[in-house]
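ARCHIVE CARD
CATEGORY: sequence design from structure
SOURCE FIELD: tokenized fold
FIELD CONTENT:
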């Protein structure tokens, strides 16, 4: 089946630099297959943390605006379930193991549905559907696609675990070399008195003339 011309790769922009991170063709392909399985879908959007668009199929709707609203609705849904005692802090092991316990959100308007599903630890899948869509089929396919997209996102996510920081071991400073004993403080030089040579007495032997 040919790819739908409305489906376009998503563009991520980092909040710090605004640079494009490029498309996610694997997630884009999952959105294409999802639309083929549910003909009543009119749009699909996969978003990552902070509402960054990973892939989108939302003809006539600005994907960034929809992503921002989806993020806000998701946060409100989490607060609602927690306030009502219906939330939890762990996933159920089905691929939507988000830490805040979010699973899905369904809103019905005058012309159709907006359904949001957890996709892995950080991503979210949002589907737009006509009012005549079978809701059971919508949930079935949306949940399955959420699991697959979550696996793709989590596999591509960088390892956030911090590497152990090596603390440099300071080499103890060497003890100063043992100083030699200081020389005795020299006092003032003692003046040596010249010794007077001792007079030698010469015994003169007198000779008496005989």
């Amino acid at each position: 089946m040919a790819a739908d011309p409305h489906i376009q790769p998503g563009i991520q922009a980092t909040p710090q630099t605004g640079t494009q991170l490029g498309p996610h063709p694997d997630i884009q392909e999952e959105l294409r297959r999802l639309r083929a399985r549910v003909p009543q879908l009119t749009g699909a959007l996969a978003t990552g943390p902070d509402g960054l668009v990973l892939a989108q199929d939302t003809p006539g709707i600005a994907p960034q605006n929809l992503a921002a609203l989806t993020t806000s609705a998701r946060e409100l849904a989490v607060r609602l379930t927690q306030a009502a005692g219906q939330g939890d802090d762990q996933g159920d092991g089905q691929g939507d193991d988000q830490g805040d316990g979010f699973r899905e959100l369904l809103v019905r308007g005058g012309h159709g549905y907006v359904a949001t599903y957890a996709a892995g630890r950080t991503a979210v899948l949002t589907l737009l559907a006509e009012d005549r869509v079978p809701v059971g089929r919508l949930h079935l396919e949306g949940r399955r696609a959420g699991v697959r997209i979550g696996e793709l996102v989590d596999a591509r996510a960088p390892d956030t675990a911090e590497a152990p920081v090596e603390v440099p071991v300071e080499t103890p400073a060497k003890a100063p070399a043992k100083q030699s004993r200081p020389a005795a403080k020299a006092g003032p030089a003692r003046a040596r008195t010249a010794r007077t040579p001792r007079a030698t007495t010469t015994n003169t032997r007198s000779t008496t003339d005989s």
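CARD ANNOTATION: The beta strands are 8-9, 41-47, 53-57, 104-108, 112-119, 123-130. Residues 135-156 form the longest helix (22 residues).
SHELF: design records, drawer C
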